[in-house]
Every structure is written in structure tokens, then in C-alpha cells.
Amino acid sequence: MHWALLAAAIALEVFATSMLKLSDGFTKLWPTVAVLAGYACSFYLLSRVLLTMPVGTAYAIWSAAGTVLVVGIGFVAYHERLTALQLVGVVLTITGVVLLNVGGQAHGSPEPAGEPGPTAATAASLEP
Q1: How far is the C-alpha of 117 from the C-alpha of 79, rounded, in Å?
Q2: Contact residues for 55 (Cβ-Cβ < 8 A; gap 6+)
Q3: In this structure, is residue 50 part of a structural domain?
Q4: Where are the alpha helices (DSSP H) in 50-107?
Q5: What number of H helices and E strands is found in the chain?
Q6: In-domain check, residue 124
Q7: Measured in whole angstroms, how far is the alpha carbon of residue 74 from the centre of its chain?
Q8: What SS3 class is residue 23?
Q9: Contact between 18 and 73 (Cβ < 8 Å)
Q10: What are the pLDDT tens digits along the chain (128 aa)?
Q11: What is the reported pLDDT for 101?
């Protein structure tokens, strides 16, 4: 379920970022409303994802996917220039997220949020 929420959070963030260009510096009402609503909903969904996924992993995926998608939208929809060096940056961004995820799986995942381990105070109270 957290993957679906993360995908929705990414889609809303990409939508909001794309609307920034159309808001004309927040001078056009409806694109500005779309930016604010898109970011608010995206951050809400991201906060829900963080209940079950490590923050580093979730944020890396969220930000990198958003960056790559917005670069693509800029190229296709806004006819922005994309150089070979920028393409290398996109590939490195994707590679970095993959390495973060593989590295996290190799070392085990931290305890899920909402299920904290014993603190010093509770551990002391458990001692005989």
C-alpha cells in the first residue's frame, strides 16, 4: 500500500511543480491554487508513507522520481533544452536511488515507524 501512496505523492509533486511554470510567479490564480493543493496533498501522502518506510528511502525515491519526471516534462511540454551532461545527471540520480535502496536492503531495514524499540527507561524497568 505504501508504494501506491508514494506513487501518488510523486505524481502530485510533479503536477504541482509543472504548474509552477504556468502560475507565472504566482500571478495567475488557478495555476497557483493547483501548485499549493498539489504540494499539500503530496506532502500529506508522503507523511503517510513514512509510517511504514524509512525516511531516507522514501524521500530519495520521491525527490529523484520527481526530478527525473519534471526534467522530462520540461523537455517535452516546455521545449526546454536537455544537454548530454544533464542526461548524465539524470542517470546518476536514478543510479543513486537504486544504490540507496540496495544498500538499505543489504544491511536490513530499521524498525518500522510506530513500533519503537525499548528506550533506556523501558529497558531499565524490564530488568530483574
Answers
A1: 51
A2: none
A3: yes
A4: 55-76, 84-106
A5: 5, 0
A6: no
A7: 19
A8: coil
A9: yes
A10: 899 999 999 999 999 999 999 999 999 999 999 999 999 999 999 999 999 999 988 999 999 999 999 999 999 999 999 999 999 999 999 999 888 888 876 555 454 445 444 444 444 444 44
A11: 82
Chain segment 66-82, per-residue pLDDT in tens: 999 999 999 999 999 99
Residue 95 lies in a domain: yes
Over the Cα atoms of the chain, what is R_g?
19
Per the listing, cell 537504486 goes with: 98
Burial 7-41 (b: 16+ CB within 10 A, else e): ebbbbbbbbbbbbbbebeeeeeeebbebbeebbeb
Q: Say which amino acid occupies 23.
A: S
Total structural domains in the chain?
A: 1
- Is the pTM higher than 0.85? The answer reads no
Q: Which three cell numbers stand for residue 95?
A: 543510479
**Domain extent for 18:** 2-107
Enter the C-alpha cell of residue 64.
529523484
Q: Is residue 60 part of a domain?
A: yes
